[in-house]
Specification:
Strand order of the largest sheet: 1-2
Order of helices and strands: EEHEHEHHHHHH
Oligomer: single chain
Number of domains: 3
Number of strands: 4
Helix content: 40-55%
Radius of gyration: 33 Å
Number of helices: 8
Largest sheet: 2 strands, antiparallel
Structural class: mainly alpha
Length: 222
């Protein structure tokens, strides 16, 4: 976004950081007609020629994508084709299908989604400075980030809860195994030291109950 001020100073702001562009892309201050467009293609658009940005051209004609913008031209009538043929020799063009253009340009056949944030924005514009409304847009985006983080934290808490249960199961399995050692110790005189070595060796994890829990943890970590 290029801003040129009355004193001649110019300022370039990346569109991802520009508050106007972000509000525009999120439909906060479009004209009301944009939310119920009567010139959509499915409304039997009467224009002989439709011209617009060819979003998604990098997936259709990547060799033409110069990162400066390529136009899409749709010819709806014989008159439109006749006019366009007079220009063909003066422009670089490639023929494609309506479906290829529509794929990344859904507003050709549908209106943009209405957002209640538009009402909030214009309500503030009427009663406050524009700067206040801009701060509201920033606040809306901040709220979305907070909500997203809350969802991530809730998911993490759930995973931690599952892991804690698995650890509890593992400890229970350990107690079970030690109980079996004590049982065998009473039944097999002089074998206690040998059984303890088995427990502290890698062989302990192959008991059915412990192996099940260990595998659960491994899958979770994976």
């Amino acid at each position: 976004m290029l801003y040129q001020y009355e004193n001649g100073r110019k300022e370039v702001v990346p569109f991802t950081e520009d508050i106007y562009m972000q509000g525009f892309l999120k439909n906060y201050f479009l004209r009301e007609s944009c939310y119920n467009c009567q010139m959509r293609f499915d409304k039997k658009n009467s224009a002989d020629i439709i011209i617009g940005d060819f979003w998604g051209i990098e997936n259709v004609f990547p060799e033409m994508d110069d990162d400066k913008g390529i136009s899409a031209v749709i010819l709806n009538s014989a008159k439109g084709k006749e006019v366009f043929q007079k220009l063909e020799e003066k422009i670089e063009l490639k023929e494609t299908t309506f479906e290829a253009i529509l794929k990344a340009n859904p507003v050709l056949t549908s209106s943009v989604a209405y957002t209640k944030n538009r009402e909030k924005f214009f309500s503030l514009v009427e009663n406050n400075e524009v700067e206040t409304s801009i701060q509201v847009i920033k606040g809306i985006e901040a709220d979305k980030e907070i909500e997203k983080k809350e969802q991530e934290n809730a998911k993490l808490r759930g995973e931690i809860s599952i892991l804690n249960q698995q650890i509890k199961d593992l400890l229970d399995a350990k107690e079970y195994f030690l109980g079996q050692l004590e049982l065998k110790d009473t039944q097999i005189e002089g074998k206690a030291e040998e059984l303890q070595k088995i427990y502290y060796s890698r062989r302990w994890k192959y008991t059915s109950k412990i192996a099940e829990v260990v595998n659960k943890i491994r899958r979770k970590k994976g």
